[in-house]
């Protein structure tokens, strides 16, 4: 077997449970890759409070340089302070590398009993504008203002991403989610751009739902949705809601995609309350790594990892506590490796 050149990948273990789930995922990827002659050259960097303690920077310049050079990164969760402290590392990296498309597939795993079996939908969330990017100012000590920025460029390119994906994968329906009944200019522009793009894909059904109604519809009948297309803040909220349909945040992967770079990360947070206790579920980051493997054109390894993961869930004997099991992070990773 011919061994290919090692894939150079920037690795950010994160903090909290990040280092544990990252180590589990790396061990699985390296095992899966060996049989196919696929190897990885991990360039590892801290970010957030841990990085600041070591370098005086929340995102070290060396990390920026590594992502710019490698053009692909796998990132564990990094704690974001609430109501103060440093800015979100996730948001900062997305803005820095113009990672405009947040791609989050939400698909049921075999063997898990949930209220909504057989879920299979995809969320396309605009990733670089809207309220979520944190353009805020204090007008005076009693008034804080946030700016909602929606552009034709941002709205059009995320819409194209969603429709291109739907066409390529044979998805039949795209729902654009908005609040244009109230925010007639900003969300109105988003919807106008979505409609213009939809007209270029006549074989795909296009529909629009107001965001609050969408939350209700997802709880009542999530099966009506196939591809969800939405703005930044709504996408963040809806992706968490949708993760609950299949068993929680510990299961859902995420990809931040731009024209030049891509960062793959779990949807969930750093869960400091269980850090270092071998309790964390690495599934979300592992499925994010599967997306990364497809992105770097290693579909055979990607499918091997996904099938092994699904085999462990179907068997149900070595699951973590968040999905009803009793096993730890390492035991779960070992079970996936055995299933390879």
Automatic annotation (TrEMBL):
Top-level lineage group: Bacteria
Any one biological process term the GO annotation gives: isocitrate metabolic process
A molecular function (GO) term: isocitrate dehydrogenase (NAD+) activity
Pfam families reported for this sequence: Iso_dh
Keywords associated with the record: Oxidoreductase
Signal peptide start-end: none
Domain Isopropylmalate dehydrogenase-like positions: 8-336
Entries under Gene3D superfamilies matching the protein: Isopropylmalate Dehydrogenase
PANTHER family: DECARBOXYLATING DEHYDROGENASES-ISOCITRATE, ISOPROPYLMALATE, TARTRATE, ISOCITRATE DEHYDROGENASE [NAD] SUBUNIT ALPHA, MITOCHONDRIAL
Family listed: Belongs to the isocitrate and isopropylmalate dehydrogenases family.
Name listed for the protein in its UniProt record: Isocitrate dehydrogenase (NAD+)
Organism (species): Granulicella rosea
